[in-house]
C-alpha cells in the first residue's frame, strides 16, 4: 500500500464521483480507477458501491475512511510540527549542560537569547560530560556546555572555548588550612579526598591536577554535584577541589585559592561536525559565540 493510494481514496470518498475526483487530483480517470482497485485488492474488500461514474462508500469504505482521515491529519500535523521546529523564530533547541552550570550560566544565557527570540523553546538536559557527549552523538542533544578541553575533543566534535573558571581547595571550617590565604595542592596530598564520580569532567580535571602535583589521591567518597561534595567536606569526610558555586555554605566550608599548580577548568560549547542543526539551534549557537566573542577550535 502506497501513500498516494490513501490520498486518492480519501479524495474519491469525499467527492463520491470518479471523474470529479480524477480532475481534483489532476490524474486520468483510468489511473484513479486502477489505484482504487489495487487498494481494494490489497485490503481484500470492496470499499465502494458503484453506479456508473457515481460511487458511494459501503460500510467497509466508511470504516476505512475514518482511519485514513486520522492518518492524513497526523501527517499534516507532523509537517506543521517539523516546520515549527525548524523555524528560526519558532523552533526548539535541545541543550545539554553540566550540573554546575545550571544555577547561573544557563538560565542567564536563555533569558538573554529569548529576549531576541521569544518563541523559541528549549529542552534542557543536565548530566556529566561523557553522558552529554554520548547523547549528542546519538542526536538527542543539539549543543552541549561542558568542561571539555581541546585536547580531549574527539575528531568529530567541534568545540568553542567560552571561559575559564578557578578551582579551589575546599576544606571544612576548623581545618588547619582553613584560615590560609592560599595553599599549594600538594599540601593536601595526605588528606582523604572527596571527588566526583568517574566520567565527570571535574573528576578528570582534578585527577590530572593531582598527578601534576605528584599526588596519589586517596579518594574516599564520590559524588555527582558540587553541593554534595561540599556537604561531605563540611562533615569532615575529606577535602575537595571544586569551583566556587552558588549555595555552598561558607560557614561550614572554606574555599582556598591554589597557589600551585594552576587550578582552573575551561568551559566550552560542543556540537557534532556534520550533524544537522535546526535553524533555531544554529541561532542559539551563533548567539553563544557572539556572547563570549569566541572562535571555533
UniProtKB/TrEMBL annotation:
Keywords: DNA-binding, Transcription, Transcription regulation
A GO cellular component entry from the record: cytosol
Xref: SUPFAM superfamilies: Periplasmic binding protein-like II, Winged helix' DNA-binding domain
Domain of life: Bacteria
GO MF annotation: an example: DNA-binding transcription factor activity
Domain named HTH lysR-type: residues: 1-58
InterPro entries linked: HTH-type_LysR_regulators (IPR050950), LysR_HTH_N (IPR000847), LysR_subst-bd (IPR005119), WH-like_DNA-bd_sf (IPR036388), WH_DNA-bd_sf (IPR036390)
Protein family (similarity comment): Belongs to the LysR transcriptional regulatory family.
Protein name (record): HTH-type transcriptional regulator YybE
Source organism per UniProt: Paenibacillus antibioticophila
Gene symbol of the encoding locus: yybE
Amino acid at each position: 500500500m502506497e501513500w498516494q493510494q490513501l490520498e486518492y481514496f480519501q479524495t474519491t470518498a469525499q467527492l463520491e464521483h470518479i471523474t470529479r475526483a480524477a480532475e481534483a487530483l489532476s490524474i486520468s480517470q483510468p489511473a484513479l480507477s486502477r489505484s482504487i482497485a489495487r487498494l481494494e485488492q490489497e485490503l481484500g474488500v470492496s470499499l465502494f458501491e458503484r453506479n456508473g461514474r457515481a460511487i458511494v462508500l459501503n460500510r467497509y469504505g466508511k470504516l476505512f475512511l475514518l482511519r485514513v482521515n486520522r492518518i492524513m491529519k497526523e501527517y499534516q500535523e507532523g509537517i506543521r510540527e517539523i516546520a515549527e521546529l525548524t523555524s528560526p523564530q519558532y523552533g526548539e533547541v535541545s541543550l545539554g549542560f553540566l550540573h554546575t552550570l545550571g544555577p547561573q550560566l544557563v538560565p542567564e544565557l536563555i533569558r538573554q537569547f529569548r529576549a531576541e527570540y521569544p518563541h523559541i523553546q528549549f529542552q534542557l538536559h543536565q548530566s556529566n560530560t561523557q553522558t552529554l557527549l554520548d547523547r549528542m552523538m546519538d542526536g538527542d542533544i543539539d549543543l552541549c556546555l561542558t568542561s571539555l578541553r581541546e585536547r580531549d575533543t574527539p575528531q568529530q566534535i567541534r568545540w568553542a572555548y567560552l571561559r575559564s573558571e578557578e578551582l579551589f581547595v575546599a576544606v571544612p571550617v576548623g581545618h588547619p588550612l582553613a584560615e590560609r590565604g592560599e595553599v599549594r595542592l600538594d599540601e593536601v596530598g595526605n588528606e582523604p579526598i572527596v571527588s566526583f564520580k568517574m566520567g565527570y569532567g571535574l573528576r578528570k580535571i582534578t585527577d590530572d591536577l593531582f598527578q601534576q602535583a605528584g599526588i596519589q589521591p586517596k579518594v574516599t567518597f564520590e559524588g555527582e554535584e558540587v553541593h554534595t561534595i561540599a556537604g561531605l567536606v563540611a562533615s569532615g569526610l575529606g577535602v575537595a577541589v571544586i569551583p566556587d558555586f552558588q549555595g555552598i555554605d561558607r560557614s561550614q566550608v572554606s574555599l582556598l585559592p591554589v597557589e600551585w599548580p594552576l587550578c582552573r577548568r575551561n568551559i566550552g560549547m560542543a556540537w557534532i561536525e556534520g550533524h544537522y542543526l535546526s535553524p533555531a539551534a544554529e541561532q542559539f549557537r551563533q548567539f553563544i559565540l557572539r556572547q563570549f566573542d569566541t572562535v571555533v577550535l
